Amino acid sequence: MASLARILSRQFHGSARRHALSKFTMPAMSPTMTEGGIAQWKKKEGESYAAGDVLLEIETDKATIDVEAQDDGILVKIIAPDGAKGVQVGSAIGIVGEEGDDFSGADKLASEAASEKQAEQTPAKKEETSAPKEESKSEAPAKQETKADLPQGDRIFASPIAKKIALERGIPLAKVKGSGPSGRILREDVEKYQPSALAATGPTAGSPAPSAPSPDYIDIPVSNMRRTIGARLTQSKQEVPHYYLTVDINMDKVIKLREVFNKSLAEKDKSAKLSVNDFILKASALALADVPEANSAWLGETIRQYKKADISVAVATPNGLITPIVKDVGAKGLATISAEIKALAKKARDGKLQPQEYQGGTFTVSNLGMFGISHFTAIINPPQSCILAIGATEAKLTPAPEEERGYKVSNVMKVTLSSDHRTVDGAVGARWISAFKGYLENPLTFML
């Protein structure tokens, strides 16, 4: 795995030798990173390390990244253990020292770090605790009102959460004794409920009560990556005025040209093989050069128009979607584009992408054609202006005046361009998708 750039500050280097322990803080792996997780410590407490050794793996919102030491030292104490989530950048995650340092102060230094963290969180806690006091003042009248308005009859009164749990576990609320006001059934009443041993069809008095059925679902913790994906895409749909343009593209010539290229490449390197996606990226870059307004970003007060096409390619990973970047696609040949996409996709699936390999990008391509999806629309990745959704190539009847029957079977691919109307007007988007279609239907223009 490519090593991480030298990201650590004085905590791992300096011209003067340390004579005291120091805190090792959560590093910022990117300019926008505010928190991360501890995937795994590679060194144990008391273990020495040398410059260049991997100390631990940090989980960011996009990838898992190695953190290397820049100087020799000793990992004296671990504060944030493996699996720790939501660790703020700059907060202490360990204590480090050098040979000859006095390690007796490690626990004190760790306690100081914990106190600092608690002090940062105290204002928020005070705000939280003040709310219930305000509620308690108005709670008494509400309870009196409930008691006064309580209807008579066979109606069962239970809190919503109590009803939900009872439904999931198959517990009859009529048999649960409520401990709330006026006999209202609360959550804890349902959770403590035990079927009566005297039931006619139930077990004898000496038999143990049957356990409640286990729920037919599992709760999966939200990872940093999934949380970020959710936040960014929700923000995009709420704030970015999307519009969509869809077109069918005849891929017959691309498929034939790809076969010719792959035969030629196989003679030199059997592992080298072009995909249709390589042609799509190249055509996208050429169309962006023809219609530079689409290669832009909304920055609020300005619209930034890029001179190069750095194309983000959507890759599905076990942890979620990530978009590694192929830089300056317009200046590269198909073989180079193909090799870079394969290398980046592998690193993405292995969780080994470096920040500079997925941050940035001026345009995004998302291809679900390999899954048999005919057509879909994609959500723009701000501040980019466009994202291209690629569907499957399918055999369809197309007009062919030169044919005796007047039609023929062609390989047709449906694509949809999502654009930000603040930066890319409808006519501009139409010009871009027309240029893109032209390059793919006449791929020899790639060679010109």
What would you note in describing this structure?
The structure is a single chain. By secondary structure, the chain is an alpha+beta fold. 31% of the residues lie in helices and 22% in strands. The protein is built from eight helices and 18 strands. The strands form five sheets. A six-stranded mixed β-sheet has the order 9-18-17-16-12-15, covered by helices on one side. A hairpin with a 7-residue loop joins β17 and β18. α6 crosses α7. The radius of gyration is 31 Å and the shape is globular. The two termini are 37 Å apart.
Please state the CA-atom Rg, rounded to the nearest Å. Answer: 31 Å
Q: CATH superfamily assignment of the largest domain?
A: Chloramphenicol acetyltransferase-like domain
In whole angstroms, the N-to-C terminal distance is 37 Å
Please identify the structural class as seen in this structure.
alpha+beta
How are strands sequenced across the largest beta sheet? 9-18-17-16-12-15
Chain-averaged pLDDT: 82
The CATH class of the largest domain is identified as Alpha Beta
The residue ranges in which pLDDT falls below 50 over 5 or more consecutive positions are 1-19, 122-153
CATH architecture of the largest domain: 2-Layer Sandwich
How are helices and strands ordered from N to C? Answer: EEEEEEEEHHHHEHHEEEEEEHEEEH
Q: What is the fold-level CATH name, i.e. the topology of the largest domain?
A: Chloramphenicol Acetyltransferase
The total number of structural domains is: 3
Shape label: globular
